[in-house]
Each structure stands twice: as structure tokens, then as C-alpha cells.
Amino acid sequence: MNFKHGTFKGGIHPPYRKESTADVPLGFGVKPDTVIIPMSMHIGAPCTPIVKKGDQVYLGQRIGEPNGFVSVPIHASVSGKVIAVEERPHANGDRVMAVVIESDGLDTVDPSIKPYGSLEELDADAIKKMVVNAGIVGLGGATFPTHVKLAIPPDKNVDCVILNGAECEPYLTADHHLMLAHAEKVVMGLKIAMKSVGVKKGFIGVEDNKTDAIEALGKAIGNDASIEVYSLHTKYPQGAEKQLIAAVTGREVPSGGLPADAGVVVMNVGTAAQIAESMTTGMPLYKRILTCTGDAIKTPQTLEIRVGVSFQSVIDQCGGFTSEPGKVISGGPMMGVSQFETVVPVMKGTSGILCLTKESANIAEPSNCIHCGKCVGVCPIHLQPLIIAEYSLRNKWDKSEANNAMDCIECGSCSFICPAKRTLASSIRVAKREIIAQRRKGN
């Protein structure tokens, strides 16, 4: 089949450092003895635990009840006994309510779980209900509840679904391995999403440094003309939602708008694969593929891991640390979140565990801005990061907002390219949070 090519204006070319795991076969996590399952693993309202200490639970059983439309249920990733329902450390640096389960090693599946049927048997409403019940969220890292994306407002005219297989974040190869191992599921999940939102066209965007994944998807698509693969230029942040839409369709999401405003629904390839998995097996989202890598890891690997397994357990399975790490990051180096401890659990949105030595994690001291304009040239949203960041440092939140700080996608391209090593992205992130806080006070 023919593959189309696309990209966007701006962006950077950081060292990708994917070699240590790209050619290593996909592995599988060992069965955990204990899992810690947070009740907050998605954007939106946290869940309320519906089990208590001493309860026996099954694999796939609902243990957290959603609160509100922008929320999804949470399920047990093992069968066994609940040994605690209490606050535990979370990857966002906070402590949140969690259900702790001691596994019985049997993985006895909840007897109420059964396949939902075939694509032909399910209508759009049934698909959305399935997606909610399965607790499916965006697996690219944002964890936005998928059923919300599929619920198109009546005033929006959506005509296509785009799957994000770019995986432009350095070090990570989780989506790459997923597309190689489960290309058929990715394509089936796309077809299910297309039927749910009532469109006839689907696209899968993959960076052109993953030719094997592009070929695997092409074989899975076959002669289906309703789906096309876009071979995207290898550039960061090619997988960002707005940049992906621009590269594939040539459309621009308006300032403050959503993909639906450009006639598009975007989801990660992992999310699509999980939709297909849940439809055919009935199983909810209780595991995911992630990459554990970095120069502080002895044996970097990409593994399929249960939700609730500790970061330390995954690190141990990858041979442990080569030396005392300088930084452990949930996600990748550009948009990931640094961790204070490795007892935090793997969650639905954990795409990677990046462990860097002290030398690699060393951050140069920033100096004064030299007004070179490089941050402006690489910004994929066409902002002026140096101006927004300067207003942020002066606590002038209204000026930051006037310069469109809220449009920033926090990709970190500006900080990466800055010759003065200024922490532009961090300053803009602070400004965004303060702007949101002031808006809430105003309401």
C-alpha cells in the first residue's frame, strides 16, 4: 500500500536514544506479589474505592467507582485479598487513595466478564458504554477518558479518527513494540473508534524511523481503503495532538480549541489496541506496555506490566541500577515527571520509567537570555516562550496569559534549544497553573 508523508512547522531533533530497547523483543513482567492501585489514574475526578480491607477480589473486578462524566472505573490487576485501602505515594508527587491487593497467584478472572461481541454487533452507544466500563483512558500519557473523546458534541463536525503512533519522546519504545506485536489490534481498535463516532476515514501516524511498524500496520490494514498510514518526519514533538493533526490533515486546531474543532478525534495506538482487546475478551484496562530504560539501568527493556506494580519491581526485573541514579522519571525526558521514590506504582498512563545516572541528569546553570530567538523558531505552537517565561518569572500572570501561555503544550522544545539553558518550559508551566488558579477564584 502507499504511505503518505507529513510533518509540521517547528520542533527539534533531540538525541533519540531508543537503540537500547528498539531491537530487544517485547518482554512480560513477572507476576506481582502485591499491587498498589491508585484511585486517581486519569484526568478528571478520582474514583471512590468500593472494596474494603479483607475482601477477596478477582482479576478485572471493578474496585473503584467513577465520579462524574470525566472519570472511569478502576479494576483489579490481580486476584487476591485487599490488605489496605489507604493513601499511598503517587507518581505526581502527591499521596492519593489506593487499594492494595495481595495476589493469590491464580489470576482468577471476574466471572461476570465476557466478550462484548463483534464490531458488526455493536452500535455506537454500545461501544461508548464498553469503553467506559473497561476503564479505558489515553495510554499516550495524558490519560484523558476515552469515552469523553468519543462523545462528539452535536455542534462539532468530525470526519476522521487519527491514531498517534509517532512516539517522538526520546528513549521510549513502548508504542513501537505494541505496533509490531499487536498491529491487528491497533487497526481493529481504530475501526471500532471510527464506528463509534460515525466516520468513514481513519489515519495512523508513525514516525519514519519505525519502518517495521509501518509495514506491520500496512499488512494489518490490507486493502481497506478507509484507513491510511502516514509516515511522519522524525521530529519532536511530532506526536503532540495539534502537530499530528497538522501533519496528517493540514488543519489547525484554533487557540483554546480541541481536536474536534478541527474535525478530528485523536487517540494513542495503545488506546486503540485496548479498545479491541476489551471488545473481544471483555477484560478491562489492567495492564500496559512500558519502557524501562536509561544509562542507570543494567538491562533496558520494553515490558507488558500490570497496573499497580511498583517502579522498583520493574527496575529490578531490568537488572537494577548500574549505579546510584541521578534521576528517575515517569515517562520520557522531555515531558516526564521526576520521582522522589521508586515505591510509586505503574499506572494506566505510565509509558516509561527512565533512570539516568548523575552525570546524565546534570542540568547546566542557566544564564541571561541572549535574545537569539531560537525558542521562537522551534515552538510548535508558534509562541514566544522567552516573553511568556519572563512575565512568569515576574509573577505577571495577566501578561503571560495575554501572550497565549495557555496554548503552550509543555513539550520542552524551547528549554532544549536554549543556548542559555533557561528553564523556559518550567516557567511557562508555572504561569499556566497560576492562570488557572486565578480563573477559579474569579468564578
UniProtKB/TrEMBL annotation:
[4Fe-4S] cluster 2 binds at residues 379, 408, 411, 414. The keyword Ribosomal protein does not apply. Binds 2 [4Fe-4S] clusters per subunit. InterPro entries: 4Fe4S_Fe-S-bd, 4Fe4S_Fe_S_CS, Ion_transpt_RnfC/RsxC, Nuo51_FMN-bd, Nuo51_FMN-bd_sf, RnfC_N, Soluble_ligand-bd. Pfam families: Complex1_51K, Fer4_10, RnfC_N, SLBB. It comes from the Bacteria. Coiled coil: none annotated. Its cofactor is [4Fe-4S] cluster. [4Fe-4S] cluster 1 binds at residues 369, 372, 375, 418. GO terms for molecular function: 4 iron, 4 sulfur cluster binding; electron transfer activity; metal ion binding. Residues 359-391, 398-429 form the 4Fe-4S ferredoxin-type domain. It is a peripheral membrane protein. One of its GO terms (biological process) is electron transport chain. The keyword Electron transport applies. It is an enzyme of class 7 (translocase). Keywords: 4Fe-4S, Cell membrane, Electron transport, Iron, Iron-sulfur, Membrane, Metal-binding, Repeat, Translocase, Transport. SUPFAM superfamilies: alpha-helical ferredoxin, Nqo1 FMN-binding domain-like. It is found in: Cell membrane. Its EC number is 7.-.-.-. GO terms for cellular component: plasma membrane. Belongs to the 4Fe4S bacterial-type ferredoxin family. RnfC subfamily. Part of a membrane-bound complex that couples electron transfer with translocation of ions across the membrane. The complex is composed of six subunits: RnfA, RnfB, RnfC, RnfD, RnfE and RnfG. PANTHER family: ION-TRANSLOCATING OXIDOREDUCTASE COMPLEX SUBUNIT C (PTHR43034). This is Ion-translocating oxidoreductase complex subunit C. The lineage of its organism: Bacteria, Bacillati, Bacillota, Clostridia, Eubacteriales. The gene is rnfC.
